[in-house]
């Protein structure tokens, strides 16, 4: 084998290794993001159920709080808005993870006005 063949095979193996490393990094990031999304949905649904069961509907202004789940503090805020011409009430809930100060995940729930 010549030096040129050895260098060419090293280039192929290093390129393959970098591609695998990039794939693994992206896979870890996406699985972490999916976990954040799932727990945000759970927190939003819990807050919605608390609001409905306690009949403590927020007004047009935001109410906020935080929950502690899986070792993190999750910040949430909620408000409601009447859509009278449709006979519906819109309940907005936004959830943000403790270390994820980016765009909050927004959930919109519609409920019929009695």
UniProtKB/TrEMBL annotation:
Belongs to the GSP I family. Cleaved by prepilin peptidase. The chain crosses the membrane at residues 6-25. Component of the type II secretion system required for the energy-dependent secretion of extracellular factors such as proteases and toxins from the periplasm. Part of the pseudopilus tip complex that is critical for the recognition and binding of secretion substrates. It comes from the Bacteria. It is found in: Cell inner membrane; Membrane. One of its GO terms (cellular component) is plasma membrane. This is Type II secretion system protein I. One of its GO terms (biological process) is protein secretion by the type II secretion system.
């Amino acid at each position: 084998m010549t030096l040129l063949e050895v260098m060419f095979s090293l280039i192929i193996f290093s390129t393959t290794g970098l591609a695998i490393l990039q794939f693994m990094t992206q896979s870890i990031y996406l699985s972490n993001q999916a976990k954040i999304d799932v727990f945000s949905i759970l927190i939003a649904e819990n807050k919605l159920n608390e609001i409905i069961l306690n009949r403590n509907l927020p007004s047009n202004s935001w109410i906020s709080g935080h929950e502690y789940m899986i070792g993190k503090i999750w910040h949430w805020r909620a408000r409601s808005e009447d859509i009278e011409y449709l006979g519906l009430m819109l309940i907005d809930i936004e959830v943000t993870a403790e270390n994820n100060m980016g765009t909050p995940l927004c959930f919109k729930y519609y409920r019929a006005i009695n």
